[in-house]
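Hi P.,

Sorry for the delay on this. The queue was packed all week, but I finally got your sequence through. Input first:
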Amino acid sequence: MITAYAVHKARGRLKRIEYDPGALGPDQVEIDVITCGLCHSDLSMIINEWGDSEYPLVPGHEIVGQIARLGANVTHLKIGDTVGLGWFSGSCMICDQCLSGNHNLCARAEQTLVGRHGGFANKVRCQATWATPLPAGLDVRKAGPLFCAGVTVFNPLVQFDVKPTQRVGVIGIGGLGHLALQFLNKWGCEVTAFTSTDAKRDAALRMGAHHVVNSRHPSQLKKIAGSLDFVLSTVAVALDWDAYLEALAPKGRLHIVGAVATPLEVPAFALIGGQHSLSGSPTGGPATLRTMLDFCARHRIEPAVEFFPMSRVNEAIAHLEAGKARYRVVLENDLG
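Then the structure:
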């Protein structure tokens, strides 16, 4: 039996449950959960914001733990290995996307908390390919958010061949943005942080930004017009997208990883005139996850986290919903 915290209706409180996961599949592993990050995507699933939640729902997709059981066909992992698990927990392994290393784009990819139970639990299961070993040098307690927030902002650097000679902007200095600043700084880019409050200026500079622009000041936005090669938006709210497109240099790209619920209104000429691009991406595949973890270990990059025991999950959710998290919340398993 697995012990977990589940929500039974949209916007409900999470309550302790037990469930039987059935037989372990031959290509699966079972993980003893050490920690699990609390992400805004968990909140979206709890309230059924995206319309695909099934109740009872066990959230959690930023999991770090140790391999407890191996399926019969699993040979590359062993009992006791420390691994992480993110948004995806399985893929078909035979489609063109999987065979080309883009498992996260598989049409039949399994999502860790969609139609199955996630990581707010003492154990979780996944296809062994998606259980990614942690390299030496990473703090096990803090590593969970790398498996969602981290790879979400790292993946575009790989997919769009962001170069260390480029000037890159990051919109939003929060759970995603604070990691993006660290990655881009160590990647070698000249980094501009966009924030709606001067209160985050010093923090942005500490985390790797070379410049900070207050997005509420049109004069500051105007000053950088035409200067950025790549702008990464990490926020989940609608913005004046035209203003950020104007900040792009010719052939620049505005890339979206924040799950904005409303349609993006972008004037066609804002794209045509400077040959600009608008794009988006999900989290990354297993190979990108491994690369990101090695990069973090090499450059000593880690999320800024606040810890809560898993038994206080409802308090942790309230803390995140109130906008008080700096910058990721991590639940520590105290379920036994």
